[in-house]
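Quick start: read one record
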Amino acid sequence: MKIGASTLAGIEYSLENTLEYIETLGLDYAELVHQYPCENITSDMLESFDLKYSIHAPFMDVNIASLQDESRLNSLKQIKKSIDLANEIDAEAVVIHPGVTSFLPNKFFKNEVNAFAKESMIELGKYGEDLGVLTTFENMPNFPSMLFSDMVELNEFLENNGLYMTLDIGHANHAGFSPDEMIFDSIKHIHIHDNFGDDDAHLPLGEGSIKLNDIVNTLESKNFNGIYILEVNDYDSIKKSYDYMKKNF
């Protein structure tokens, strides 16, 4: 079982500090959140750690579903830089958010927003494929601004276009999916954290109500070979979650 942690837990610290903490815990993987304050990650710095990597493409101020051409095209450019970095460091996966919307587009231009999101996802998937980078798209929590909180819809689009999913277990629970409804063949990468279904809380594993054992055991029975990334809020939550994984799996 491949287990890692997201550097999101150390966003207030230097990247070096967070990677050192992840490595000290004995984890093999770190997921690099490739946006402010870590926009300029160098392979030389990463090579000083005994870790393997995945990359979370930028999602702050980035929207691949934007109706504004310049905003959307700039977002694609930024995400392609993450795919380039993944290619440079031989990262195992890149995670991409499928876009957001707002009140006016939701009310008047929902079809156009969805069309741009899908067009962008296909473009990014092809860009990654050409570089030999596993490019995945993440299911979102159930907030009005988020596209593709419906995992069934996301999976159908991905499978029809030869694309892949990052299953975010906490997001799926927030969107009302039961453990047996979260499993799809398109899943190649995992974000794992806990909540009570009422918020996207990113709690340590075992501190919410998600039936994590059911989900993970099902994935393992299907010979899942991707990484389980602990995507929690702080250093202590990484340790608690890793202890949970070691105890239960």
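Strands lie at 2-6, 29-33, 52-56, 94-96, 135-138, 164-168, 187-192, 227-230.
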